[in-house]
Q: What sequence folds into this?
């Protein structure tokens, strides 16, 4: 698309990488729709490493070989296995894209969203992609959350905070069924449907 002899500028793309189906959807969107060959991808996980479980590989549509992603549960790398699985999925789908993993351990008083925004600025990120889960009450604008929905509300709030406060382009991604496409949210577009 570039006018200077076809050369396009390299972009820095960051995907918030957690062991969830929402992060898997964000990564699938990044690989299939957002990344170009000259881009660089940063997979960032922010939080308390001891509280994560290696469940990400179950969400990958086409995981790498079982030996490469940890062999199905146990022994070796601990709670960070999903990051390596995500990196392997990226390098398999886009072999020319450089993929980096950033693990950021947070203290109990740190805020996840502001930490991610700090790293976006630090790495000069052009595009931030975050998996987003939206409940019916969130879509209707309700701010009430019962105790059992607190985790869902916190995850939604983090994604919304990133979308609204990032200096770079930020896209919240929701996967809709297996082949139904994506529902995208950004500062300028809400509930944009992208067919797969």
A:
């Amino acid at each position: 698309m570039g006018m200077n002899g076809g050369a396009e500028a390299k972009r820095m793309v960051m995907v918030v990488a957690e062991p969830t189906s929402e992060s898997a959807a964000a990564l699938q969107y990044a690989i299939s729709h957002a990344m170009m060959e000259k881009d660089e991808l940063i997979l960032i996980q922010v939080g308390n490493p001891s509280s994560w479980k290696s469940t990400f590989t179950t969400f990958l549509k086409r995981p790498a070989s079982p030996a490469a992603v940890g062999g199905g549960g146990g022994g070796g790398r601990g709670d960070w296995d999903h990051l390596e699985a995500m990196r392997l999925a990226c390098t398999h789908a886009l072999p020319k894209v450089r993929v980096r993993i950033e693990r950021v351990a947070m203290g109990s008083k740190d805020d996840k969203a502001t930490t991610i925004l700090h790293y976006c600025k630090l790495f000069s990120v052009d595009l931030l992609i975050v998996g987003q889960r939206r409940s019916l009450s969130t879509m209707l604008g309700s701010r009430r959350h019962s105790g059992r929905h607190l985790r869902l509300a916190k995850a939604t709030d983090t994604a919304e905070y990133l979308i609204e406060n990032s200096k770079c382009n930020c896209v919240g991604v929701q996967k809709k069924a297996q082949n139904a496409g994506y529902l995208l949210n950004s500062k300028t577009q809400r509930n944009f449907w992208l067919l797969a």
Q: What stands out?
A: Residues 150-165 form the longest helix (16 residues).
